What does this fold into?
Amino acid sequence: MSNQNNCIINLAQNDCDLQRTTEVLRQKLVQLVFSEGSFTSPSVLEISQQLDNCIVATQKALL
It folds into this structure.
């Protein structure tokens, strides 16, 4: 398998990992907002920032 094919497979795998991580963080965020009852608690903000970072990484991967 050529290096180019390896890169495509690795990019696809990374995209899947990013999508899974994004979905897990999204679910955690929803659960945390309900349990904390606040959008501004430190734990909610921390997960929100992690989710933002995953979304940005996904958008960069699509460019």
Confidence is low (pLDDT under 50) at residues 1-9.
